Amino acid sequence: MQKFFNLTIDEKKRFGQQTGDVEGYGQAFVVSDDQKLDWADMFYMVTLPTHLRKPHLLPKLPVSFRETLEEYSVELRNLAVKVLNKMAKALGMKLEDMTMLFEEGMQSVRMNYYPPCPQPELVTGLYSHSDAVGLTILLQVNEVEGLQIKKNGAWVPVAPLPNAFVVNIGDILEIVTNGIYKSIEHRAIVNMHTERLSIATFFLPRLDGDMGPAPSLISPTTPATFRRIDMVDYLRKLFSRELDGKSFVDAMRI
């Protein structure tokens, strides 16, 4: 990652986003010419299932970087499955309700580079939002502080620890658990003197189905509080909006 973001702008543009596509080098959630952009660069791509990969991205990366990402994505996939299964068990949720959603689901990675900023109080590394996915596993690569979560209305820093992941519940899991687990609103701030790198790995349900509260969690006393939606439609709506707190999951409420 460090070597990739240290490339010249022309070299990085070889992996640039194509018109109408968020995958590649650039920025995400840019919906107008007037909005204030994040103080950050990103490299985003789908890693699993393999047939969804863009041929101009992962296969074109330097061999060592590509092989590392391949191994990393497989290991994190295994970790995510374990976490999701334990969550289902803790809720008393039927395991098949979870596996039917996420088995053969989509995995993507977002590599983030936040350069130093001489006036960090005037910019935002990543705007406040909750992840619209099922689960996010974040590695704060160079252990520079910047991640903050909203707790009881206040922003609380999450200190980076060596070789430690941050596991974050996204909007889809809030919907699937019918609001029992809440997605976490978070943001990234930047440093005056030091660059910050992080890699977020996202896990979503399979794209050829729909998504909503798990049937095993719905009863006459606990009715569904979110509507069902086709996954492709869900993603289309997601990338047509600016990041804005938890407004996206709130729009899914019945």
Automatic annotation (TrEMBL):
<dbReference type="GO" id="GO:0002238">
    <property type="term" value="P:response to molecule of fungal origin"/>
</dbReference>
<dbReference type="GO" id="GO:0046872">
    <property type="term" value="F:metal ion binding"/>
</dbReference>
<comment type="similarity">
    <text>Belongs to the iron/ascorbate-dependent oxidoreductase family.</text>
</comment>
<dbReference type="Pfam" id="PF03171">
    <property type="entry name" value="2OG-FeII_Oxy"/>
</dbReference>
<protein>
    <recommendedName>
        <fullName>Fe2OG dioxygenase domain-containing protein</fullName>
    </recommendedName>
</protein>
<dbReference type="Pfam" id="PF14226">
    <property type="entry name" value="DIOX_N"/>
</dbReference>
<keyword id="KW-0560">Oxidoreductase</keyword>
<dbReference type="GO" id="GO:0016706">
    <property type="term" value="F:2-oxoglutarate-dependent dioxygenase activity"/>
</dbReference>
<dbReference type="InterPro" id="IPR050295">
    <property type="entry name" value="Plant_2OG-oxidoreductases"/>
</dbReference>
<feature type="domain" description="Fe2OG dioxygenase">
    <location>
        <begin position="105"/>
        <end position="205"/>
    </location>
</feature>
<dbReference type="GO" id="GO:0009805">
    <property type="term" value="P:coumarin biosynthetic process"/>
</dbReference>
<dbReference type="InterPro" id="IPR005123">
    <property type="entry name" value="Oxoglu/Fe-dep_dioxygenase_dom"/>
</dbReference>
<dbReference type="InterPro" id="IPR026992">
    <property type="entry name" value="DIOX_N"/>
</dbReference>
<keyword id="KW-0479">Metal-binding</keyword>
<dbReference type="InterPro" id="IPR044861">
    <property type="entry name" value="IPNS-like_FE2OG_OXY"/>
</dbReference>
<keyword id="KW-0408">Iron</keyword>
<dbReference type="InterPro" id="IPR027443">
    <property type="entry name" value="IPNS-like_sf"/>
</dbReference>
